[in-house]
Every structure is written in C-alpha cells, then in structure tokens.
C-alpha cells in the first residue's frame, strides 16, 4: 500500500471495512508509516546499489545473489572474493571479472558516470588490497577516484608532491597499516574530510591493525574520522556519500 | 613572497641578484612553494577560525591567546574550559560567556550566519557535555544544528520519531557512551554520513569509552566513521566540513 | 489516542476528516501503532517503577525528580546516592532514608508485597554494597529476597551449608570480585538461572573487575549469565523479571 | 546408603557397630548428605538431559558416549560436531542427523513436547550457526522456539515488525556479532529477560567477538544479561530454565 | 559437636533418639563431617593466625576485630593500615605498633620463634612497602627472614654478592616492579622455589604492574611461580608454608 | 681449578708465577668463585635431570640431544613432542615411549623411586594434556603423584570427595581453563601450597587462557601461586621442589 | 636539476624563460629544495643499500627487484625469505645464498669491510632467527659483529663471562622472548647504548611478544631503547648507525 | 683492593697469609674480579653523574641525597621534582634552581662544556615537560642540545623547515603524544638514530600514552627505537651516549 490517505478514503467510502483497515495498519506499520518507508526509499534514492560481501557465503547462495542482482540491476559487485568464487560465477555470468589484488568480483553492464573527485591514498604497497577495494567500490558507486599510492610518511616528500591532488578532492581516504601516521599528515594538508582506514599490515606490536587504529583515532589533525581495520568498502562508501553531497546529488 | 614568478622576473631583469634569489628560495621554501602555502592559506580559505583547547593551559597564556584572537577576529571560542578560567577571562573580555555543561567559553561579536543542516544526536543526558560541545562548535563555524538529544536505543521509538529530522540533515553526529549502539541504528535510517562519537559515560566494563569506541568502529551500518572518545569538537568540525561541501562553500 | 479502531470508525462515520486522521496517524505513529505502545504500556504493565541513578545528577534536578516520582507513585528509589544528596532530599521528603552501604536513597509509602524467592549471594564483605543494591532493588520491585552473604569459595563449606536456600530460589544472584569463582560453583548446585555480577573489589591484576567479569563469562557451569561490573541494580531487575515469570505475574 | 535414618536405627539396634557407622559416614559424606545429592538429583529433577560438546573428543570416545546416552535416554544431542563425526556416528546410530549450519548432531526417538515460548533473534545471516545452536538446544530441552533471524539494527524496521513475537515470549535470546547492538534495542522493547550472545562474526577491531561482548555487557537497557562469545548452547539452556519457570514446571 | 563417634555411641546407648541424631547430622553436616572440619581444623593445625586486611574497614569494625583477636590469641596483625587506623587502635591496645613503610599494624604479646630461612629480595627502594609486608607477615607466622633489598638487575653484582644467602634459603620471595626481571635471575641461581611478586612501581607502560606480572609469568627460569601485583602478604604466606614443610612442621 | 686455597699456596711456594695465578683468576672468575659454581653445582645437587622442550627443535638436533642425555644419564624426557619426533627417536632409542595425550617422549632405564606426595588436579578432561605433563614430569623427578582429574567446580561434590587426598599432599597442582576457579576452591581446602596452572582450554572470552590466568592470580584463597598458561612442566617442577623440601632431601 | 643557482643564472641570462623556470621549480620542489634532497642524498651518503622485505612479495616482482639491485649495486639482501623464493632467485642470480635460520637471501659481490664493533646477544636458541637477521644485516652494512648467543638470564654466569666483549662494543643488540629480562641486565653492565629486540618466542601469556616488549620498555637500566617484536633488521640498522657515528663515518 | 697482582705478590712475599688472601678474594669477588668492577668503574669512566628521581622520596632522604651528591660532585640534578621539594632543598643548597615545566631541580657549580649536537623535537606544547626533561638532562651530561619544539605532523611544514637542524644532529629525540606520528616522519628525514618518546598527552583512546607507544614501536621508518612513556630522562641519557660515541669520547 503506497498511500495512507487512499486507505482512509476507502474506509470513509465504505470500500473496505474498519476491521480490514485496522488489520492492514497493524500488520504493516513499517511499510506504511514514514520511518518504515526509509528502507525501501533510501536504497532507491541513494543510488547505492547493493554490494555482496563474499567471504563465507555458500557457493550456491553466492551464485544466486549475483544472478538476481545482475537481472535486477544489470550490474553487481562482490568484495573480498576468491579465485574459486570467481570461477563459479564466471560459469553463470560470462562477463564477470576478478581483481586478485582487491578481491573484487564484478560485472557491470551499466557503469555509472564518474563524477566529482575523491583521493584514495595508501602508505605502502602492502596496503594495496584495501586501497583498491576502496577505489573500485567508490568507482562502482559513480565517484571519480584519484589513486595516490605508496606515499608513506617515512619518505614525506612523496606525499607532499601530491599536495595539489589532495587539496582538490572532496574527500580523502587515507589507508595505512603499521603506525598509521599517514592520516594525520594528510589531515594537516587539506580542508576536506579525511576518512582513515587502518590496515592489518605489519607484524609484532601492530596487533592486527590495532596500533594503526589507535593512531588514527588519536589523530592530532582536525577532520579525520576512522572506519574499521581493512574496511576499504566502508571508506569507499562514505567517500561517495561526501562526494555526492559536494555535487549536490 | 607571494609570487614565484615575480621573483624570477626580478632575477631576469637584474632587479635582484642571483644570490639574493637563491637565498630567498632556500631560506623559505615552505612559505613559497605550493605545499607550504597550504598552512596559511588553508586557514584563510577554510573559514575555520582557531579554537582554543583550554585544559592545562597556564592562566596568563590562556588569557593572552583569547585577547589576541579577539583582537584579530572579533571572536574566540575555547573548549573544555572551567569556571576558574572563565572568571579570569571575564576580567579582560567582559562579553565572554561560559556554558558549564559543555565547558565552552566564548565571545562572539561577529557570529556567522547558520546554514545547511547537521543533526547532533545523543543517547542520554549524561552525554550532553559532548553533544553540546559538538553543537556549539559547529554553530561557531556557521553550521545550522538540530539537537536530537536523549534518543538512546533502549527506547527506540524516541529515535524513530525524529526520522524526518535525521533524514533531512547533510551529516549526523551520533554520540553515545556505554554500549554505543546509537550510531548503527542511525546509520541504517539515513543516507548522509554519520560521525560517531563514543563517550566515556558508563562504568565497569565500559573502560572509559573503549566499549563504545569498539561498537562504533564495528558498526554494521554503512556510512559510519568514528572520532576519539568524548571528541565533540572533532565531530562538530567534520560535520561542518561536510555541511559546507553540501552547500558548495 | 488509545484506539486505532475508534479512529477508523470515526473516519467511516465522517466524524473526523480523512486529512485529520491521516495527520494523527502520521504525527504519532509511535504512540499509536503497536510497537510504539510498548514504551508507555511496558512501564504500566510490567510494574517496574522508575529508579533514579543518582551519580552526576545536579542537585536541583535530583530533588525535582524525587518529588515528581513521589507525587506520582508515592514511592521513589535512587541508587548510588551519597550523604550530600540524602541531606538535600530529606528537606523535601522527610521520610526518605539512606543506606550508606548500598548508597540507596528511598522513600516508600506504598511498599509492594514481597513474593516468590530470589537468593542474593556475595563472596566477601567488600561486595556488600553491590549485594545490598541488588537486594533492595529487588525488594522495591516486590521480590522476596534471601541474603546469603560472605560465602566466598575460599571456604567452600560456608556456601554448601546454604544449599537448601539456593535450591529453593527462582533465581540466584551471585556477586563476587577478585577471581569471581562464586558464580560457577553456585551454577553447579542449582537448577534455576544464576545472574552473575562481577565487582570491582580487588587490586592489582583484578583490573577494576575485568578479571571477575572474564571468569563469569567463561563459567563452566550451565545457567550462568552476566551483567556489568558492580551492576547490582541490573541483577536485582533481572532476578525480579524471572521471579515474576515463575509467579506467573 | 539411601537413608541416614536407617543407618542410625541399625546403630541403635546394634545391627552395625559404631565404628562401621562412623566409617560409612566419614567415607561418603558427599553421597549421603544433602548437598551431595544435589548432583544426581538435579539431573533427574531438572529434566535437562546431558548434551555432548563434540570438538576435540577422540573418535571412539565420542561414539561410546553417544551410544551410552542413546541406550539410557533414547535420545542424544551433540553440539559443534563436524561432518567426520557425523559419518562415524551414523554407522552406529542410523537415525542420527547432522545440521551443517549449527553443527548439531542429534538422534531423538523421544522428542519432548515443545511448550511455552522463547524468541531466538539474530542480527545477520553470519550469526546463523549460533542462532541455530541456541534454537535447537532449547527445542531439544522441550522449549517452543520462534526464530526471528536477520533483524540487525542497521535496518531497524525489520526488528520492529517482529514486536509482537518478541513481546509474547517468556525469554528472548539476542545474538549478534560486530557491534552487537541488537540486545540493547530488544531490551528496550520487551518486559521479559534478554539473554545476549555475542558472536565472533566480524573482522578487524571486532577482536573475535570482544567488541560485541563489551557492547552487550554495557547495555543501557534493563533486563539484559550476557553469556560467552558464540555460546548458543548456554543461551538455549538459560532460556529453557526461564521458560520452565514461567510454565511452573 | 566435636565427635562423630561420641554421637553414634549415644545413639547406640539410647541416650539420644535416632531422630535427634538425624537432625544433628543433617543440620550441621559441614561442622561435623570430614571436609567441613577442614575449616576449623585447618586454622588450628596450620598455625596460621588470622590476619586483618585493613583498607576499607569501618573504624568500629576494625577496632572490634583487633580487640577480639587480641583477646583470643594475644596477638594480631593488620596489613595495609594507615596512620588514622593506628591512632584509633592505640587507644584500645596500647602496645600496638605501626610501620609506615609496610602499613603493618601489629601487637604481639606471644611472638613465635623464628625458624628455617626465607630470603625476601626486592629490586629497588620503591618496592620496600611490599617487601616489608612480605617479610613481617612471614615473621609473624614464625619464619626466619633474611632481607636482601635493593638488588635490581641493572646492577647485577649486587644480587650476585648475595648468592650464598639465596642458596641457603628454603624459599625465595622475589619482588620487583617496572620490568620485573629479578625473579628470573634469582630462579637461575637457586634450587629452592621462588615466589615472584610483581609490584605497581613504575610509570607509563608498566600499566600498574601488568608489565612485571607478565614478565614473571613468562619466566624462563624453572621454579618461579607468581602472586598478584603488590601481594606481599600472599608471598609471605606461601613462603611460610614452604618453610614449614622444609622444617617438617 | 677446584681450590682457591691450593692456588694461593702454589703462589706462595713459587710453584706458579704471580702472572700465571693472575691470569687463572681473571680468566675464570665464574668457574672459580662462589656464585659461578652455582650453575654446575645446582644441577648436580638438585637432582633435576635436564628435560627437553621438543617443539621447534630440528630433527637431527633433537635426536642428538636425546642420544647424548641417554648416554650420560641413562634416561631422558621430552615435553610437547609429536608423533613424528617419536618415530625419529624410536629408531635410535628403541625403548623410547610416547604419550599422545601429554606429548611426553621418554626413555627411562633408571627410574627414580617415587617419594612424598603431590596431588595433581584438573577441572575437565580437556585439561588432561597439561595435567599429564605435570604428573609425568614430577614422576620423572621422583615425586609420588596422585591424579585427581575431572573435578571442576561446576560439580563441587566431585572435588570435595577427594578432600583427604588433597589434604595429605605436600603440594597441590591445580589445573583449569575457562574460568579457572578450581585453584581458589582447593586453596581453601588445604594447608599446603597450591601451584595453579591456567590452561588455554575454552573459547570466546577465554582469550587463550588469559581469563583463567587472571582468575588464578586474583585468587581469594591464601597459598595459591601461578605459572604460565599450559605450563604443566613448570608446575611439576615446582611441586617437586616443594615435595623434596618436605622430604628434607 | 642539481643546482638552484645554475637555474637562476640561466634565468638571468635569458637561457631559459621565466615560465620554464617557474614550472621547473613548481613541478619538482621536492627534488630541488633542501629537505627534498634528503631522500636521494640520504641513500647515497648514508651508505645504507636498499634491503628487500621478502614476505608477501609476488614472485616476478621479487625476482625483478633482486635483479635490478644486483645490476645497480652488485649486491642485494632480502630478509625473511623462504626456500621457495630462494629457488626462484637462484635461477637468475646463481651466487645467491639462503640462510634458513634467519631467512636471509643474499648475493654480495662487493662485500663491505667490517669495521667497529657491535655485540648481538640473544637469550636462547629459539631467538636465533632474529639474532642472525640482526647480525647479518649489520654485517651487510659493514659492521663488525660479535655474536653472543644463548646467554639468557636463567644462567646469569653465561652472560657475565662475556662482560669484556659487551663492554668493548659501540652498541649492544639484546634479543629475548618470553620475559625479555636480558636487555636490563646488559644495560647495567655496559656504557654503550643497548637496542632491545623483543621476540615472539614463548607461549601462553607471552602474547606473541607483548610480554617481552613491555619488559624492555620498562627497563630499569639506563641506555635501553626498544624496536618492534622480532625486528632484527631494525636493530641491525640502528646498531650500524651508532657504530658508524663512533667510527666518525 | 685495587690490584689483584699486588695481592698475589704479597702472598708470594709472605706479606699476607694464604688464608687472608683467600678470605679477601672470597669476601669481595664482585669488587675485585672483572665484571664486578664494571659498576664502580662504569660510573667513573662513563662520566654520567648520578641523577635523582624525586617522586616518592621522603623529605629527609631527598635532602640528604642532594647534599651528599653536592659535596661529592659539586653538582646534582633531580627529575620530576615538585615545588615543595624545591623549597626544602633551597634551605640547604641556596643555589638550587627549579624549572616548573620539566620538574627539574638542579644545582650545578661545575657545569660541563656542551659538545656535539642532539636535536630534541616535540609535537605540541603539551609535550614540553618531557621535552625539557630530555633536553636539560642531556645538557647536564654535557650534550649540546637544539630544541625543535611544536613541530607536530598536523602542520608538516613546521617540521620540514627544520630539516637542516635535524640532519646535522648526531641523534634526534622525537617526543609526541596522541598519535605519535612525529618519530616516523623524522626517521625518514635523517640518517642519524632517532630515540622516540611517547607521551601521555591526549585523552580517550590515547590510553595514557599506549597509542603513541604502539605507533612508535611500529614505525615504518628505519632508525627509530623507543623508550617508556614520558621517559624524557631516558631519551636524554641515550642521546648523550650516542653523541659521545660520535665525539669519540
């Protein structure tokens, strides 16, 4: 039922009984009433197509989701996929591709136009899987991405030489493991928001990314907020949200 | 020196010697060359006036900063101030005010026009100090703020009744201590970015806000990024950054 | 509005316009529709009067809450109060009492009849504040409580001598600091649910109750669930919930 | 010896010597005296049949336990079993079944009648193994279970649409990983006790379920107590204890 | 009742009825039967007089315990007392003494003969409070103690010059804060058991003694076991247990 | 050089030059002077034969150690060995045996007489590997061991029925994982020292044994000291040290 | 461009246009201006050839780096390599060698002269991989290394017998796992700086090296600073830096 | 005894008896033999005068240490002193001075000549106490110090403008709280060793300096080693050790 008013009119006109109306309203308050619409509406309005988190999905289940989304949207993207899952999916969706670095499995017959600008930075080559996940997810959502990779703070000039790119972006994603200092330095160079992504890159006292997470949460630079360890998808999503706001979409 | 070209023209014309030019370029590379401008320029361009972090500042030092900023900008704001600091400052700046809830000490002869919309939400009344810090800082920076307080998830209808406010904001600040679940629920209700602020409200296994911090970093909702425990200032700052992008400022 | 049906009948009869009905339904979906009733109704139906958490409450605010609840319910209970707050409240509510051990401030002109049986156990005398908070809160809610105090596992016969009391209770609250082993031993002695409360009693590697919390969460006995460190109120509340279920209330 | 009185009568009558009686009393105080009976009696009285924790059990040992319980009770249930163990057991107990989702291996020729009502809720599909363990264990113990799955707080309307089911249960089991906010939201919706189960679902800063555990222990909702990470069995057990109390069993 | 046999004889002789005997045995199984005697008997047999943990004890309560123990045993010792408590106790027990370093408050009209040998070692002068607590507690229990203080591993010769003392002891107590390396070095020098006591001495990453605790638990030397942070009493107790075993007491 | 005096006499008599004597004294101070003797002497005097920690040892290296110790002592014991290592060793030492539960690989042609008494207790069957390691190590060192297995506190009567065994031992080893409460209960039942061994048995919030470790370190019972997680060897070693002291060996 | 002056002279002489000069200066400020030279210059000046961190490198990538460095420098060293990588590299660089203990893969046709003195100490044989990494890296950088292995503090005389070697070194690297006490003892024996390397050797509460890390950070000896867990490379690098300073290189 | 040879000559000449010589050698092996000399000699040779750690020292004790050192050395320095201690000391040593920022209490009638160069850097003004402690301690030990304060990475140009100072130092001390990124950036700019000092500056998830400590231990830059949180003294000490090596002292 799309229209509360319509229902009430029908009640008034006796087209449906009071009891029927009551039961409709009681049974489906979340479909009908304001806040409940948010779910269906948000997806439509936001333009964020569904993304599939591949790990742990049973084979048949994964394949059926991909096929269903492909049919509905003409495009589908899965994160953290593996070779095996790719092989399975290729049998059903021949134009599916797999990026072994980021683990992204994708088929996209209706790619979105890339707009605005987001800079995705990472400290070292070991952070590439997360950086590519963030970049490709943002691109799938229609964001124009500049990749600024391998700009760790142990060679600060590499980062500084990219000042212009960073300063012209609507949002910067800063990805780093080990000590995670990258986000603070970038935060001091730009006026746009910085989304920091700690990675699990490192060993010993990096404690699986905890060290980088704490560094980023304690950033002395303004404008830095943080997502979960290795959460490239989340950063790509938020960067797109901000980029769209800047584009007035 | 504002203009590299101008300098080079002078070298060419012999208005200054090669040695002088060399020494200017060497002595002040950070003032002159691109990236170095960022600091001075960023402040000017960004429209973010300086904010004073009051705790631990020596009395005379605090007073002199306030006076200097007041003279330069006609306005000044300090965070986490105390009654004692307020008394000191009132002697020098009679129109200074103090909000004991948020600890904000402020004098503002040139208040900015409030634009756009940011929603600042908090879970309980104990989170008010952080929520007011975030709100007043954002307002000081020219952001229109809607306060949505005391909407903790243990009475979910309170939050749901504010759906419309949340959905119309360019950015939502979600502040909560204890288990910090507020951010995830809000993240599922809106399409704008959510800045989550864990607070140190709680006892026992809240471990000074660590519990809420972990909750928020692990949020199952898209669009949630996190700042440090009790960092209302940081959230107000980032929310303003995003609000300005949405306003194309 | 108490009755959805009534509203629809009025719509049908033309007593109110479709627009009016629509606005009522939209404006107050949480008051009117099922789930939203939970809040108001739950309080009424559950028989759990509101309890005031005293720490950090401003003086006037605390006094006004107590007066308001006293007027409405003829009874009021505050947890973790202090001498100062008691003195304040006594001026307004002469029959208020204060228990310095548990920190409970209470006035109760309509005490509930105590029914069923809950056993509140604690390991040592240092756990008494939490044990009394749990006991008195449960009693305030109408639960008959048997206190089984100072039965720490370092003298296991003390606990065993209370076997009969423990086995006859509908729910057992097990309170202990330091190593927190009490809950597991009790869990093995009874067939009713055990609510375990770690306390911050201890020093050194007790880490403010973390040690006892981990002990209890890892209990090798069936039937043990855990609340926050020092959360006597929570345990008294849950024990009452279970006791009422057992009483078919 | 079943009867203390009988022994004393024999002493009185000289049927056994004082020394013999003394030695019987000293040698077997735990079998004979009150508290010691608790063990054997508890099992009988409580109606909780023994459940086998399968991981790490040697093959022959596992098979022999299953056969023994099958012979004694006509039913047996093992938790966290694997395909290999199932294959082994099927050879001996042909009607044994295996649920790969929950890891439950079961043979039940005398299933109990399902009574009362417990709602088992989980946040996401990745929490299903724990949710099914809790559900099937409770059912094995004779509890009627309503499954309310995939109702994570990032889409709050899904949970709200189940309000009626939740409010009609004697106990609610709330299972969630990542940020674990589900328990608090449910705690605010119902008047029955909520048993919260953190799961190890998540990555990065979820630290194997620690994040969800802290969230649940710090719940701002009344009536929430917590069991160990992934402890579906424990939750099903406690829910059954409470359900039985409500049924006056 | 002191004697089970006596009771049975009375039953046999008809001096008490079977019912009376049954009720005595049932009512007081823990006093009468084997394991229950352990408590009363252990105190008697072990020769460990009760020791009072002073912190947090209410004034009147503390005074009454001291008086009671003084009357019963002619001696009393309290740990972690303060000046204020000492002043209170001196009014009632004039010969009570107070050692401000260890916080031990003591009156001892029947001091035990000091036998055997225990070496109490500490790393620095800041560890003295714990070292004196251990030493004086052991002496109160009748153990001959050699103090080997200020022998931290940063000047290893200081410790080595005490080799003979260490090697002649029945048990060595090794007390250290900061990095806590003392226990391992001593463990390699002697063949008797070493009781390691981490202290909260240190700052920064000593985390209140956690660092020293982990060091000692991970000791690469054989024969080292560990008690809680700052637990001088516990170490003095265990050292006495071992010393007595060596003395065949 | 065995005799300092002899050397000095030779100097006096001119049998060796001053320079030679000086060089002997300087070159070998650790062999000659008191403290240095400790190492060689300790091994001899203590009667603790060397024990081999098998994990990570290279195959040839392991075999050569075993052969060397076998030749020297006629006996050898390795801890935490595996099937593969056993197969290797059997080729060289035909009478070597392997206990897959404890991982102990042993050949013993000169077994020591078992004396005194140590009780090795464990909470559950999953703790058996650690309990057997402790027991067999102690036996290898000549200690008479009573095994008291599967006496976890969730069925407290099992433990209590062993009171006599526990009370007659010179030292009790208490082994438990999960919540580790066993050590505290035993500590309250006996007057001999208790060596507590936390195990990594458990899941979720047991954090690999940390929970049991904290429980044991915070024990409310006197006489409990703790070794590293799963350190059965260490407990067997210390128990032997104490047992020998009690035997005046 | 190597020479700022040269550029300015060209501008003056009209050999290049102002615009060209401006673009050179803007495009490459980091190459040209002071601080930026640091990167290229530092490598040249410092004499630290690049070192390859092997783990996670793709096969082709690894091979190409090795070949490139071999061509440029005539030498190359990789850390933490594995058998498989060695096999690959040997096909291209026949004189490459592999040390399975340290994981170092190396080819060195122009080995540096070994100068000065650094002592690399480790506590046990299990620390050898880290100790060899530190030693061989320092040697590759031209440092003369004395290996002082297996000198753990549980047999302190072993370490003391090496006093002279330690005291004659310009820098001491102290490597230890488990309780990590070695660094403190060495710190008290020498006047040169000690670089402490915690290792992940240990089990249970060593928490992957955290215990040793905390021990070393809390060292009571002066002159001890710490690098990451297992970071032998880092220690070898810093020891070389200090050794070179001492050699006035 | 200063001379072993002298003693032996006396033995040879019969000037002292063999027994006397034996007793001298046995009684004082640590004073006489090699390693034992290290302690006395190290102090003399190293030129590191003793430094007093003031916190927790009893008043009389502190005064007596200061007087003794003043008499012996003509100079004395205490760290982390307070106003009260300064007042006490001034009564006895009139030329004593107190720096309230660093807490250093000092009297120095024989100041050392300042040589070499060490750069002490700190991120913010809140790190000044630690930075001044490091600087003044190094100066007291005769090191020439360049202070490079307030160069946090959130305004990277401030640090870069000091490149020349940093590159000309023999050792750099990098002091920072919050996220502690300073050390990594400096490590990438210089070829000398960097001693990193985490500070407890920060709030929330800085956890008293733990965040900065982890950042620095995980530094991606070569040449960075770390001391304890707030350990300015330690950094000043090590920097002096390195500076002296560079000066060939």
Q: What's the layout of helices and strands?
A:
8 copies of one chain form a homooctamer.
Chain A: H1 4-12, H2 18-27, H3 29-32, H4 34-46, E1 52-53, H5 59-73, E2 75-79, H6 83-92, E3 97-99, E4 104-108, E5 115-122, H7 128-140, E6 143-148, H8 156-160, H9 163-167, E7 171-176, H10 182-187, E8 194-198, H11 210-217, E9 224-226, H12 232-246
Parallel strand pairs in A: 1-2, 5-6, 5-7, 7-8, 8-9
Antiparallel strand pairs in A: 2-4, 3-4
Helix pairs in contact in A: 5-6, 7-12
Strand content of chain A: 15-25%
Any idea how many domains of chain A?
Answer: 2
H/E element sequence of chain A: HHHHEHEHEEEHEHHEHEHEH
Gyration radius from CA atoms of chain A, angstroms = 22 Å
Q: What fold name stands as the CATH topology of the largest domain in chain A?
A: Rossmann fold
Task: Report what the structure shows.
Eight copies of one chain form a homooctamer. With 249 residues, chain A is of the alpha/beta class. The first copy, chain A, folds into two domains: 33-108, no CATH class; 115-248, 3-Layer(aba) Sandwich (Rossmann fold), CATH 3.40.50.1970. Chain A contains twelve helices and nine strands. In chain A, the strands form two sheets. Chain A has a five-stranded parallel sheet. In chain A, helix 11 links the parallel strand 8 (194-198) and strand 9. The two termini of chain A are 28 Å apart. The E-F interface holds E 34-35, 38, 42, 45-46, 48, 160-161, 163-164, 167, 170, 188-193, 195-196, 213, 217-219, 222-228, 234, 237-238, 241-242, 245-246, 248 and F 34-35, 38-39, 42, 45-46, 48, 160, 163-164, 167, 170, 189-193, 195, 213, 217-219, 222-228, 234, 237-238, 241-242, 245-246, 248.
